């Protein structure tokens, strides 16, 4: 096996990303002259040939890929992500690729695991499924893996990569617009109203923004007492729905930002002795496998989870094979699934 960036980094006592920045003359993140001299000294001593290595990588593949997943609890059993991962893993097998590694973002908070990831060269590329990726980590990952495809990144500082995204804001607006067309004006929201980052910035989650867009466009009130943060947890959504139902004035409808949370919210409504949709309408987002079987069947936004998983793999393999030359941005389509959980408000 030839000399690698890891070999040079260990000899020079610096990170792999630092070695890469020196060799590639990365002026966006300059390295001190002293450190550069040390790195180039070991490049010469060890006989590293960047162009030879690149040619070898282009002509030989390991036929394996890696995953980095978000921190959703029990992600492999989650009704949304499990379907996406099934499609992803099945497509990889069909294409003749194995899975070299699978880490969650929480795993990568352990320095030894993060070092192992950015140091290994046993995968041809990486698929990242995460709402927020730190720029520093992404740059280190790029130094180790030339081929990266991302689903759902919301960090505007990360760019120039292949990605598949869902227009959540627009899809959420569509289903809230449906409620307004039915005649609803007092509409509650349960979801993750805010997401934050380690940069101390806070941005509104897209489904909340879609909800707010429609309410503002129609001049309808967004009442603070009707906006609840449930952190994507079914049990917490149940509790937040109970809080809403204890108010003196109730909304006529509620938009819950995921079907998984909707199950908890629907239970709270039933326990309060109210009927869906006669007393209160409920709509949601994701169209998980359970959505048609709730009581009543849930009106929701369909997200093509399995197809997204398959497309992530196909896009990564196209990148590995050199069939993609510019950053590719794919928008996965969504579809409104109208069932029985929403109706005009009671007069």
From TrEMBL:
InterPro entries: HTH_LacI, LacI/GalR-like_sensor, Lambda_DNA-bd_dom_sf, Peripla_BP_I. It holds the Pfam family Peripla_BP_3. GO terms for molecular function: DNA-binding transcription factor activity; transcription cis-regulatory region binding. CDD domains: HTH_LacI, PBP1_GalR. Keywords: DNA-binding, Transcription, Transcription regulation. This is Transcriptional regulator, LacI family. Residues 3-48 form the HTH lacI-type domain.
